[in-house]
Amino acid sequence: MIKIKTPAEIESMKPAGALSKMALRRVGAMIKPGVTTLELDRVAEGIIRMHGGIPAFKGYGGFPGTVCSSVNEQIVHGIPSDEVVLEEGDVVSIDTGAILDGWVGDNAWTFFCGEPSREDRALCEVTRDCLKAGIKQAIPGNHLGDIGHAVQELAERHGYGVVREYVGHGVGHDMHEDPNVPNYGKCGRGVRLQAGMVIAIEPMITLGTYDTQVLPNRWTVVTADHKTAAHYENTLAITEDGPVILTQDDQGPWCELEGGKE
Length: 262
Ligand code: MG
Description:
The protein is of the alpha+beta class. The chain has a single domain (7-245), classed as Alpha-Beta Complex (Creatine Amidinohydrolase), CATH 3.90.230.10. It has 4 helices and 15 strands. A 5-stranded antiparallel β-sheet has the order 8-7-9-14-15. A hairpin with a 2-residue loop joins strand 14 and strand 15 (242-245). The longest helix has 24 residues, at 7-30. The protein starts with 6 loop residues before the first helix and ends in a 17-residue tail after the last strand. Residues 106, 169, 200, 202, 233 line the site of magnesium ion.
């Protein structure tokens, strides 16, 4: 069942979204060769708790981290570890979620550790643009398929893979509410969008195949061909005035790709 939020409820979701973005932005700024993903996780947890929030992922289904840190061929659900030491050229997808005032904010960004390869950089730029294209379709009267189609069309135009098994979702008091928000679809198909829906759009796009595998840790999802994946996500409300991105702080809804420039 899709839970429609009132304008006042949407307003009250903004602090959770802002805190999620703040944690994501701070962690992104730490990424450099030699840093472990466990260090990133500790900083994210500290920021969220310092502001009165609760890490949304920690303990969710038994997940051990505050962040999901997914490096290179890892698509999502990478487990923070002191054994994962970031190296020059890595692409690092960070997903952070915070619960504040009983509401959830959920967002993700793929950061560069040093200088990525040209093809990894292009993948990330297109995946970020896929997120923007999906958000543009999140307006009353459109359908879920319009969002998926916009993401899929842009990714496939560049020859990239669109992950099928993992999708966006409704967000509210729970991190995963109805509906599912696929990154593929047909225009005009699926649930009709209406004002008051709050969803996370999160394209997961790959350099090669969209087939996935789950590592023996039972969490971490990797590309079956071990080629690079990218992942960007915002939580947003569908309103009569257009999409309102809830996961934004005083610096806005986007992170920098690197070094202060987008
Ligand atoms: Mg999500």
